[in-house]
Backbone:
């Protein structure tokens, strides 16, 4: 890459922010131009490289407008309401965006789609290469195991995760549902309790586990008569999401506008 890509990271004091900063500092094709977090965060004013023993010259700030001047891509791993504010600012400043945040409402997802008509955006609930491949594997499996197999999606995450089921579990559900011509909104069952009756074969079930420091486990189970097929991904470090997000940032350098996901980034369509 001729000139390093100028990157701003939002949510810098969070778990993903930490992994992203580390990955940007290690990549000669990228240069950190801004480090954002919410107003009132006690880390504001500190050098973004301090925790890695690096003097980057970029201080953690809540000044979005200053951070977005003359940069290429903002990488956002925060909370939906923060992402919406960053989205508006990116549109205003003509800055491309990687959205890794999860837990958006249908209305917020629509706002992202509309913004992508002007700005290039990669939006994916899981930026790992392995999970992106898993989505394709689930589609292939669902096409073969289309009848006589019950589909259940199991996920586990650390105790701090605030949304459930995970954005990745929902994405895997959408992949299975679309391969079968079903609408996930109509066939999803989120947890079961009490006398539920027999399982409706047209449903896709979700089960959520929260605890400890689990980075992210996902299994898509196809349970048939006499056999089960289980497709599983286990993330052992947040570096996988950070590296995927930065790969997505590089992918956007040749795009002026449009909404993309990791399938596009990895050319898996
Ligand atoms: P975290 O709680 O550790 O960090 C969130 C960060 O966002 C913090 O720095 C916090 O101060 C900041 N923030 C919160 N509200 C804000 C606001 N209004 N304005 C500005 N900054 C604000 O969370 P995390 O584990 O780093 O995860 C962040 C998001 O990324 C979550 O939605 C999570 O589900 C998602 N995630 C996505 C992927 C992926 O591959 N797409 C992977 C891991 C996590």
Residues:
């Amino acid at each position: 890459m001729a000139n390093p890509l100028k990157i701003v990271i939002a949510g810098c004091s969070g778990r993903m922010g930490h992994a992203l900063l580390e990955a940007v500092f290690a990549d000669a094709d990228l240069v950190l131009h801004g480090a954002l977090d919410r107003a009132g965060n006690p880390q504001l004013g500190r050098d973004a490289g301090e925790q890695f023993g690096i003097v980057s010259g970029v201080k953690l700030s809540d000044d979005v407008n200053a951070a977005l001047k003359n940069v290429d891509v903002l990488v956002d791993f925060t909370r939906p309401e923060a992402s919406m504010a960053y989205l508006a600012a990116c549109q205003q400043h003509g800055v491309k965006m990687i959205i890794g945040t999860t837990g958006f409402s249908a209305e917020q997802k629509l706002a992202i789609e509309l913004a992508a008509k002007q700005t290039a955006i990669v939006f994916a609930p899981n930026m790992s290469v392995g999970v992106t491949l898993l989505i394709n594997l689930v589609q292939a499996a669902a096409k073969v195991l289309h009848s006589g197999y019950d589909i259940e999606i199991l996920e586990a995450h650390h105790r701090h995760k605030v949304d459930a089921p995970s954005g990745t579990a929902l994405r895997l559900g959408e992949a299975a549902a679309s391969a079968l011509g079903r609408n996930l909104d109509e066939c999803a069952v989120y947890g079961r309790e009490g006398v539920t009756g027999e399982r409706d074969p047209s449903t896709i079930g979700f089960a959520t586990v929260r605890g400890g420091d689990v980075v992210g486990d996902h299994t898509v189970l196809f349970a048939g008569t006499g056999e089960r097929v289980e497709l599983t991904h286990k993330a052992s470090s947040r570096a996988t999401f950070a590296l995927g997000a930065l790969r997505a940032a590089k992918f956007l350098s040749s795009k002026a506008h449009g909404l993309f996901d990791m399938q596009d980034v990895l050319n898996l369509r």
